[in-house]
Automatic annotation (TrEMBL):
Range of residues in the leader sequence: 1-17
Positions of the Solute-binding protein family 3/N-terminal domain: 22-240
Protein name per Swiss-Prot or TrEMBL: Transporter substrate-binding domain-containing protein
UniProt keyword Disulfide bond, yes or no: no
InterPro entries hit by this protein: Solute-binding_3/MltF_N
Keywords: Signal
């Protein structure tokens, strides 16, 4: 018993020693694990922020609802990648954005019958979204019919439903959808934006509102240095983002 408890005690001590706890999900190309190591645009930014600020950040990749819960219960923590929406504004302290992160409705090009000029046009179709994500929250705020909204736990599930014809439209961000489709061997080129739900909400690091002000200031200063030096834009372009986002 003592032998297998020792590594757990050591891991807990290392996590407790970190200045900040970072909670995220598998959401490529922004954040994901590559052979067990943090990868993606947001994680690359965190690496640079830590190098500039001297902060230590212990990162955990969890299902999104769990990541949200852990951030809420941990004062010195941040949640990423988080789309900034009016409903979330007062819940967090924000650093970013590092991408425009438009929230959109996505369809397959073969679905010529779907002509979505406004959200009301989609009300008769089945829409898939990740539970608790910005897209599902926006649809619920806009009183999208619950009977036509299929909520699932992760991005892969909602993507597979679209290609299997189990949903007519998906709600989310286009860049991550395309990246994941290519990873899964699905024809990413068959997807297109049907409607923009929210233009340019932006993707951010969202800090627990009770975060230590000194830690937050060190993080924010390092991030702004990345932006002003042009290093942030280089990272954005490397990961397929849009120039100037």
């Amino acid at each position: 018993m003592r032998h297998w408890l020792a590594p757990l005690v050591l891991c807990s001590a290392l996590a407790a020693a970190a200045d900040l706890q970072g909670y995220t999900e598998e959401f490529p190309p922004f954040n994901y694990l590559d052979k067990g190591a943090p990868a993606g645009l947001a994680n690359d930014i965190l690496d640079r922020v830590m190098a500039r600020s001297g902060l230590s950040i212990e990162r955990s990749s969890l299902p999104w609802p769990r990541a949200v819960q852990m951030t809420a219960s941990s004062p010195n923590s941040l949640l990423y990648t988080t789309v900034r929406t009016p409903a979330r504004e007062a819940q967090y302290r924000w650093v970013g954005p590092y991408d425009d992160c438009d929230v959109v409705l996505i369809k397959l090009r073969s679905r010529k019958d779907l002509q979505i000029g406004k959200l009301e046009d989609a009300r008769n179709y089945l829409v898939g979204a990740v539970r608790g994500a910005a897209a599902s929250q926006l649809l619920q705020e806009k009183q999208f019919p619950a009977r036509n909204l299929t909520l699932v736990s992760d991005e892969e599930a909602v993507l597979r439903m679209l290609f299997a014809g189990r949903t007519d439209l998906n709600a989310g961000m286009f860049l991550p959808h395309g990246h994941l489709a290519r990873q899964l061997g699905l024809p990413a080129q068959e997807m297109e934006v049907a409607h923009i739900l929210q233009k340019g909400g932006g993707c951010y690091f969202a800090f627990n509102s009770k975060v230590d002000p000194a830690l937050f200031a060190r993080f924010e200063k390092a991030f702004e240095a990345l932006r002003s030096s042009g290093e942030l834009q280089q990272l954005q372009l490397r990961h397929g983002g849009r120039k100037g986002s």
